[in-house]
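Following up on my earlier thread - several people asked me to post the actual chain instead of describing it. Fair enough. Here it is, all 505 residues.
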Amino acid sequence: MIDYVPQWLIEWHAQYPYVPKMLLAGVLVSSVCAVIGCFIILRRMAFLGDALAHSMLAGVVGGYLLMKLAFGAEASAPAMVVGSIIAGFLTVAMIGFISKTSRIKEDTAIGIMYTGIFAVGGLFASLFSKHIHLDLYHFVVGSVLVVSDAELWMMAGVAAFVLTMVILFFRHLTIASFDPVMAASLGIPVLALDYLLTACTALVVVSAVQIVGVVLVVGMLVTPAASAYLLCDRLSRMIWVSTIFGVASFVAGYGMSEVINVAPASAIIVVGTGVFLVVLIAAPRYGLVADWLRRRRAVPQQLVEDVLGCVLRAPGKKVSLATVLTHVEDRPEAVRRAVRSLARGGLLEVENGTVELTDDGRREAQRLLRAHRLWETYLEHAGAPHEKLHKEAHRLEHINAPEAIDYLDDMLGHPLRDPHGAEIPEDATLLAPGRQVKASLLREGRTATVADVQTAAEDTPLAPGIKITCGPRREGDAVWTVFLDDGREVLLDHAAADAVTVVLE
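Reply from S.P.:
Thanks for posting it. Predicted structure:
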């Protein structure tokens, strides 16, 4: 069989015997980090991953001391893995205890506990230095080039276990990551899944520390997943893309470290970070360039409303586009975009350089005009100078939610005209045939049937089933005149008009 292997490959393997094992370890760790990192990103646990990584020192030292002092043997990888997991769970438990039983928030508790437990590991490593023979330098910065057979088997076992858990509980993890309240309502054990995810994260951190060290392990967990998050809207696709990014960053980072003769761990994370920055800029939907183009193409609501108001106030049904460009205060290209947007939305008709409101557009423009004139009336009541009413109302008219404008109209007593004498339009949407409204909203000439009469209007001849016609307002528009079918006239003040509910004809 050896005769079929190229000579150059034999020579390369003889010169670099550690590379196949290193590549296998790197692919295993980077892929499993990328998978579990997707759930860490979605559940906003990135800082917790950092805490687990730093707490590992206490676990490794504890496992080493237990094997050395209790059994008189050098610590094995499984013992240090178990110690690391225990330290990880202790860290999570202390963070949860502090954040739930005190005023300290979770992010502060994480900062306190992971540094504290990391320091405990350093203290015991120093105190029992004659018993501990650990290469703490490589623990901090990683040692991808000297992965032992035991460590490789440990990484394979971790990868197999974590990927099996993700596959078995993928549906439950997905629901709990996006909506834990709904997951609990469906009977999914959210707390047990939290513990499972914490255990998987601790195992992944243990294996990743061998590659990039405790300082950079969060980059291996989070960066590929964050890059995939900017490109994908489905978790299943995000996991595959994250895995590709993770493995590619490892291979490219190791290759760069060989070329420029630097530490592999740093090069791996630098490549991963570079990939993230490229994706951040160029992602087709969530990238910075796409966001800039989207904002550049977006039409501000204020500009849309100004265009509608300009067309509504123009003499005649049609107005030239040049007139709109002249009267709307904005860049011509922005105004043209607003006109095109309104045309797509069915509010304007554009033909041969002229603009005309559609029926929907006229109703929307009337609604905005009503908001403007009501704001002018309010400002006059508030004592604003007459010469500033239009300018200030133009600024405030964009606060035009129906509930807010209806409240303003009622507070002002349903005025008929603004301070300049111009008629305030009715609420065309609310005053549609068949709708139930208060009688205070009726204008002269409106007909309706009384549906309900409340206490404030009980002393009037109005009763359910009576047809009425609204007459002109009196006493400065403060009194409503209502005519019955038999010709009788009924006068209602604001409170009484509000107390009568009618069905419009």
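The first strand starts at residue 318 and ends at 320. That should answer part of your original question.
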